[in-house]
Specification:
9-stranded mixed sheet; 8 helices; 37% helix
């Protein structure tokens, strides 16, 4: 029995690089598609927001002389590329999907609306929502919070390369301790970087819990849906 009926899955663009230094690793893309199909076959309704950091990150570009607005727009387009790649991988795996874009760009994808996304999920498709919020100065973390709230998801599953929220960065501090669960207020008080502040605040104010887990280990997404405590639950 699935723990959640409808989820918003947030994937990082960097994770799509796999063992590469940039771009999309086909092996990692295939692993993600297989994990998503597995829970889709359980009847879970799935909305996905994916980052674009494996291709271009607007804020980083701004630091190198790019106009911030244009840099963020480039980042939005990077998320579209990743979304199309994931959609293709899902379709190849026999899992139907729909690409919805925050900015009008038919025939690449249909213009996003809450109702189109919910309709697609209720029809048995994975709704891949790309282009961020369609506005500069907002991260894909904030985009995923917004979309998760809009589609009335039960939870946001934040798939990362670490297995939860720690007292410090576990890749830099060997003494970092993992939380099994933590409140939004404690995240603020400790200054932990689960998501950017705008995204975290939106989730808190709208009652959308976040579950942080390691998506890069095949089978982990199914474990989260089955209720296995492999990550960290962030709640009010």
């Amino acid at each position: 029995m699935a723990r959640f009926k409808r989820i918003l899955l947030k994937l990082s663009g960097e994770s799509l690089m796999g063992e590469q230094k940039y771009g999309i690793d086909e092996k990692r893309l295939g692993e993600y598609a297989a994990q998503i199909k597995e829970i889709h076959d359980m009847g879970v309704q799935i909305g996905i927001v994916i980052g674009g950091g494996n291709i271009f990150r607007g804020l980083k570009g701004a630091g190198k002389g790019f106009d911030r607005v244009k840099g963020d727009q480039m980042g939005m387009l990077a998320t579209v590329i990743n979304g199309l790649g994931l959609s293709s991988a899902l379709n190849s795996a026999g899992c139907p999907s729909a690409v919805l874009t925050a900015i009008r760009m038919e025939p690449i994808g249909e213009l996003y609306s809450k109702w189109k996304a919910i309709s697609a999920m209720e029809e048995g498709k994975v709704a891949i929502m790309v282009g961020g919020t369609g506005n500069p100065y907002f991260t894909t973390d904030t985009g995923s919070s917004l979309r998760g709230i809009e589609i009335e998801a039960d939870v946001m599953l934040k798939g990362t390369r670490v297995d939860g929220v720690y007292t410090a960065d576990p890749e830099k501090d060997p003494d970092a301790v993992k939380f099994n669960e933590i409140t939004f207020d404690e995240i603020y008080n400790r200054g932990l970087k689960v998501m950017d502040l705008t995204a975290t605040t939106m989730c808190k104010e709208n009652g959308l819990p976040i579950y942080v887990f390691n998506m890069d280990i095949p089978g982990n997404l199914r474990k989260v849906i089955d209720g296995e405590p492999i990550g960290t639950l962030v709640h009010d």
